[in-house]
Amino acid sequence: MPVQTCLESEQKQLFEEIEEDVLGCIHCGLCQAFCQSFRALGSEASSPRGRVHLIRAASEGRVDLGNQGFEHFWLCTLCNRCELACPIGLKMADLVRKVRNIYGDRLPEGLRATVAAHLDTGNNMSVTKEDYLDTLEWMEEELQAELDDPTFRIPLDVKGARYLHTFNPKEPRFYPLLIQYAANIYRAAGESWTVSSEAWDVTNYALYDGNDERATEIARRLFDRARELGVEAVVASECGHGYYAMRWGAEKWLGKENVLPVRSVVEVMADYITSGRIQVDPSVHAGALHTYHDPCHLGRKGGIFDEPRQIIQACVPNFVELADNRESSWCCGGGGGALAMTELTPKRRLTAEMKAEQIRQSGAEIVITACHNCHDQLEDIKKVYGLTYKLKNLSEIVSKALVQPSAETA
């Protein structure tokens, strides 16, 4: 079937699925003040209302989504901030995902390649098993030396553990110290945990391309492995969309009966601190002013607001909130797959100006976040907007503040 005909057929099916939502939009425009892509770019079509207009026009044959409006549906970061303003509760991120799905494989190349890599190699950065296992061994040796404990091991493929800890591929590829930090924290807590030699990638970029079939396959592999190991729960490393896709998406894609409980490592660390399972010394982080960026998928869409602040309160003496935080936090600008879409880089950076300015106004020297996507975007925009802050993950904050248990209790 020709692409044009296919798209016309898909557009008709799409409108039948979302007709009630689209027709429910009262075109009030309240969403525009809450949408950073609209505020940055100024185009009606880049606003939630404008996207609804495009869908409506396509359903009436006035617009061909194959040639018009393509960019506007990929500029949306799926952050859900517009839902704070919508009087009818329109689920814009869900609508945008459905529109993205009609393009099939006509995706922005970077996003297409990222999803394909995950399906082909088991992780979205094509990290080989040899490299992954070598990195685990390297971090194990580093922690042995740091703790002066040659018996320490990062548990691999241990059956019956309480937690299966999963990684973002950026950790073994670019940020291996985050593996060490997680292992250090689990050790101090005396946790029963394991990592897996297979299906260890927490990410699911099919959440962004809108294709539920691909999203289902990626999620299935991870939960199949978790059941093989007989763990009680799966822990997502500091990856906002990975946590959201496992915690909420997998239930939809696989069915509740086929998933295990999912926790963010942020929740786990907060539990350890508030329950007294680990002790921390905040003086380690004294001096510098810290702030925290709420990742959209972890916070506004995942409901994890208090736990990061419980960690920060215990570990960081000098902290300031950004002007807009928690539910009202502005997206970093790199969500929705934007970082993988190099063709949108100039506009991605423009949409991040509001976040950059709020960080500047906060006076913070260190920005903490709990998402690799946000970390990379905030690293990029600080250069664009002439900022000098340093970035840290929550696991680094906790691990460096740990008061190590005695040999008898470790």
SSE blueprint:
Layout: H1 3-24, H2 36-41, H3 48-59, H4 70-75, H5 92-101, H6 109-121, H7 129-147, E1 163-165, H8 170-173, H9 177-189, E2 193-194, H10 206-209, H11 212-229, E3 233-236, H12 240-254, E4 262-264, H13 265-275, E5 279-280, E6 290-292, H14 306-315, H15 345-351, H16 353-362, E7 366-369, H17 372-384, E8 390-393, H18 394-401, E9 402-403
Parallel strand pairs: 1-2, 1-3, 3-4, 6-7, 7-8
Antiparallel strand pairs: 5-9
Helix pairs in contact: 1-3, 7-9, 9-18, 11-12, 13-14, 14-18
Any idea what the shape is? globular
The N- and C-terminal alpha carbons lie at a distance of 63 Å
Total tally of structural domains: 3
Supply Rg.
22 Å
> In DSSP terms, counting alpha (H) and pi (I) runs of 4 or more, how many helices?
18
Strand order of the largest sheet: 2-1-3-4
Strand content: 5-15%
Please state the structural category. Answer: alpha/beta
* Topology as a string of helices (H) and strands (E): HHHHHHHEHHEHHEHEHEEHHHEHEHE
Query: Helix share of residues?
Result: 40-55%
Mean pLDDT: 92
Largest sheet: 4 strands, parallel
What's the total number of strands? 9
Stretches where pLDDT falls below 50 for ≥5 residues? 1-6
